[in-house]
Amino acid sequence: MIAFLLRRVLQAVIVLVVMSLVIFAGIFVIGNPIDVLMNPAASHALIQRTVEKFGLDQPLWRQYLDFLGNLLQGDLGRSYVFDEPAIGLILSRLPATLELALTATVIAVGLGIPLGMWAGWRPDSATARMIMGGSILGFSLPSFWVGLMLILVFSVELGWLPSGGRGATVAILGVRLSILTGDGLAHLLLPALNLALFKLSLITRLTRAGMREVLPMDFVRFARAKGLSERRVLFVHVLKNIMLPIVGVLGLEFGSVVAFAVVTETIFDWPGMGKLIIDSIGLLDRPVIVAYLLVIVTMFLVINLVVDVIFSLLDPRVRLVEDEA
Description:
This protein has helices spanning 2-28, 33-37, 44-53, 60-72, 86-121, 126-140, 143-157, 182-214, 218-225, 230-259, 262-267, 273-282, 286-314, 316-324, and strands at 170-172, 175-177. By secondary structure, the chain is mainly alpha-helical. It has a single domain, classed as Orthogonal Bundle (MetI-like fold). Helix 7 (143-157) crosses helix 8 and helix 8 crosses helix 10 (230-259).
């Protein structure tokens, strides 16, 4: 297991270095932030001092080497707009994004697994058909349109829930959380539902497929023949055997929930990393954009590693295959 972890950490470092080059080349060759940051009426001397301050007068290869050297020290540069460390800005918005992503994931798992199990257990029932039809809508409807409809119905027409913002928060170990307050929970509900819709449909269909595959197996028939209740058969024997692919998909999909929360955060004015990156792109705040992308890449690498470890715990065959490789 130790050799496996060391190998994966080394792979992660290589991926980070390669991605840093790709991100740097993709971001730093597009546009000129000076055109956005500086007043067109500014003097040439002021513009030149600003260019030198941000190191934009250096050749691209020199800028990358400086960037890589600072990256090894944990420094991703200072925001052009806020004049603060870019990584600090990203990390200050990270709790809001993680809170939204975790809530959306809990909603998707809490509803998707039971709905998928029912659809797989009673595939010919009217309820199962409604569940699968709803999952198709969840895949098909664009999240920005669903978000606008949620605001229109529940905020504008019914007035039940606020249309944007994070609401009241409380500090737990220095981290601001909105889910622990009534006002914060009301602000969280609509964006979490919007973000969870696609994942809910995915988990529902994945669970149904697993149910349809496992139910005809001999061990299920044997469990029923022993006189076990249908509930125990489903929630102990069947669910245990379909959890492995679900865990794998959940791990990867949680990273995508964080990465693609941009649309939801923008629609609902949620003060997370997604809202920050959209504002930074509009202002060509390169250090913040690069810091955000590297944080997302790192998050995906960590999640993949955790999923692999969980796989090896749930199924020893996974660990044995890795060791032999």
